[in-house]
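Input structure tokens:
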């Protein structure tokens, strides 16, 4: 037997504790991986949704209206600052 295996036999409680800690760490990492995968999927969903919306005909047609609204809001803010 090697020195490492004889130590494991002489301290089974320590071996069990180390095994339990390793299993808990594995479970924690597995949960984190699954959480990140779910976040990546959600992010990809919203990226695709954004592309569909901003690429739609209605979005392109209303672009001048959104630009005019932004300019009107800036003008209103400047008017208030000067008053």
């Amino acid at each position: 037997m090697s020195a490492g295996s004889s130590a494991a036999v002489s301290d089974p409680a320590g071996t069990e504790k180390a095994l339990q800690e390793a299993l808990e760490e594995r479970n924690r990492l597995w949960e984190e991986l699954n959480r990140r995968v779910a976040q990546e999927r959600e992010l990809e969903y919203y990226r695709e949704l954004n592309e569909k919306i901003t690429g739609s005909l209605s979005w392109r047609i209303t672009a001048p209206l959104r630009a005019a609204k932004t300019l009107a809001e800036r003008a209103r803010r400047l008017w208030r600052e000067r008053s």
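The mean pLDDT is 91. Residues 14-82 form one domain.
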